[in-house]
């Protein structure tokens, strides 16, 4: 199921993400603590890895908004504000990505200013979920 996403985007999804997705553990976590802001943000939905008809299928979300995103950003969750939680492959698409918050509104002014670091790895990100 997730292999198509990896092939289409030429990435390697974090193993911890795939395991959490397959075991449906992410669906139980709908709030994210942002340590820098001391704020809790609601996660409205996680992108699907299997249902290509779903508007929130990861490849559909990426395809719809890739012109707004930086090249190395791959959204995997949608917040209550319609912003994205993304994998950030800034070290290369074959390396473990960091996790960032992408502010859609700020991206209209400057896409680089719309990115806020959340965690160095998906494992660290999971520790921020509530």
Itemize the secondary structure elements and their pairings.
Elements (H helix, E strand, L loop, with lengths): L1 H8 L5 H8 L8 E4 L4 E8 L11 H8 L7 E7 L4 E5 L9 E5 L1 H4 L7 E5 L2 H5 L4
Antiparallel strand pairs: 1-2, 2-3, 3-4, 4-5, 5-6
Beta fraction = 25-35%
* Euclidean distance between termini CA atoms: 26 Å
Strands, total number: 6
The overall number of domains is 1
Number of helices: 5
SSE string:
HHEEHEEEHEH
Largest sheet: 6 strands, antiparallel
What is the CATH domain class? Alpha Beta
Pfam family, one: SMI1_KNR4
Organism: Siminovitchia terrae (Bacillus terrae)
Domain Knr4/Smi1-like: 3-126
Protein name: Knr4/Smi1-like domain-containing protein
What does this structure look like?
The chain has a single domain (3-128), classed as SMI1/KNR4-like. 25% of the residues lie in helices and 26% in strands. The mean pLDDT is 92. The protein has helices spanning 2-9, 15-22, 58-65, 104-107, 122-126, and strands spanning 31-34, 39-46, 73-79, 84-88, 98-102, 115-119. Strand 3 (73-79) and strand 4 form a beta hairpin. The chain has a six-stranded antiparallel sheet. The longest helix is centred in the first third of the chain and has 8 residues, at 2-9. It is globular. By secondary structure, it is of the alpha+beta class.
Summary?
The protein is α+β, with helices and mostly antiparallel strands. Helices cover 25% and strands 26% of the residues. The protein contains 5 helices and 6 strands.
């Amino acid at each position: 199921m997730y292999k198509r996403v990896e092939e289409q985007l030429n990435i390697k999804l974090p193993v911890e993400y795939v395991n959490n997705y397959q075991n449906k553990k992410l669906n139980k976590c709908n709030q994210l603590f942002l340590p820098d802001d001391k704020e809790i943000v609601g996660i409205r939905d996680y992108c699907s890895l299997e249902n290509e008809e779903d508007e929130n299928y990861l490849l559909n979300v990426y395809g719809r908004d890739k012109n707004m995103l930086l090249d190395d950003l791959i959204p995997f969750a949608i917040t209550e504000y319609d912003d994205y939680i993304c994998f950030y492959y800034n070290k290369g698409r074959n390396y473990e990505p960091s996790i960032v918050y992408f502010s859609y509104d700020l991206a209209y002014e400057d896409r680089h200013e719309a990115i806020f670091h959340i965690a160095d790895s998906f494992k660290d990100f999971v520790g921020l979920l509530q």
